[in-house]
């Protein structure tokens, strides 16, 4: 699955690239089935963790910080009533699973470290690609929350910039159930703000959110099995899902781990001691190829 010159030019121009039929129906079905198994086995604690892209800093807790090296579950805000009581069954209440599925679960690890993913990373010029973060996103029917306009490098920053998101549709992503929207070429303006982690673990943005014109966004509907590459500085979002159909997806964020690229300690995601990120491949393997 190496990228052609035309695909690379389109990615450089637009900041995103849709690749149809990247993953087989069988793999898609296996990943969906495994996610539902994980949810079925999850026993929610008394104090659940909710993900809300509109209010991220107030939702941060130790459970969220520890998810950098774990398989953790985050609920939709819409799964609870005004009194805090859960009004949706567990399997229809989870917003996402994160953030180390790609290292800790064999089904998601097999896809994340597959030859196809490695070939994509090599095509993009990554010498020692590190899959830092993964998420299984449910976008639940009726309550799937809006993901506000953002750049992935706000949360996972490297110097120089190197972050690339791999977003795999596991169900058809449509205008009705909350497909991605992006601003073509917005990556060329650089990263507008950072989500910084203080030594005591507190998180905060270093600047207010940028304002974007609705007319600048283009929709990216995709069938199940299609993959979209997202430049780390690309502005993208997704709408609420008020339809009766869910929109499952799996994403992995990859960045350069070779010498000369810095991953700051101020990034929110910091793996626990003794759990380093395994590269997709080492530079020697690329040079030999």
From TrEMBL:
The keyword Oxidoreductase applies. Pfam families: PhyH. GO terms for molecular function: dioxygenase activity; metal ion binding. Gene3D superfamilies: q2cbj1_9rhob like domain. This is Phytanoyl-CoA dioxygenase domain-containing protein 1. Keywords: Dioxygenase, Iron, Metal-binding, Oxidoreductase. Its cofactor is Fe cation.
């Amino acid at each position: 699955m190496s990228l052609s010159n035309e695909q690379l030019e389109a990615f450089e121009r637009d900041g995103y690239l849709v690749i149809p039929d990247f993953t087989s129906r069988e793999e898609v079905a296996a990943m969906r089935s495994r996610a539902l198994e994980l949810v079925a086995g999850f026993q929610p604690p008394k104090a659940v963790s909710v993900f809300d892209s509109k209010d991220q800093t107030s939702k941060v807790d130790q459970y969220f910080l520890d998810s950098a090296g774990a398989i953790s579950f985050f609920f939709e805000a819409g799964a609870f009533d005004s009194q805090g009581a859960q009004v949706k069954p567990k399997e229809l209440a989870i917003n996402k699973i994160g953030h180390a599925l790609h290292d800790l679960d064999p089904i998601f690890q097999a896809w994340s470290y597959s030859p196809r993913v490695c070939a994509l990373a090599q095509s993009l010029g990554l010498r020692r690609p590190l899959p830092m973060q993964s998420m299984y996103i449910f976008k639940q029917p009726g309550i799937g929350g809006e993901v506000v306009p953002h750049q992935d490098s706000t949360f996972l920053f490297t110097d120089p910039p190197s972050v690339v998101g791999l977003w795999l549709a596991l169900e058809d992503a449509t205008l009705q159930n909350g497909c991605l929207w992006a601003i073509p070429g917005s990556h060329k303006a650089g990263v507008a703000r950072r989500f910084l982690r203080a030594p005591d673990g507190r998180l905060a943005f270093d600047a207010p959110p940028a304002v974007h014109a609705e007319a600048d966004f283009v929709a990216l509907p995709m069938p199940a099995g299609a993959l979209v590459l997202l430049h780390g500085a690309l502005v993208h979002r997704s709408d609420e899902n008020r339809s009766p159909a869910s929109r499952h997806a799996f994403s992995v964020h990859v960045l350069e781990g070779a010498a000369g690229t810095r991953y700051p300690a101020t990034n929110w995601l910091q793996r626990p001691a003794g759990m380093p990120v395994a590269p997709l491949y080492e530079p020697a393997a690329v040079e030999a190829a």
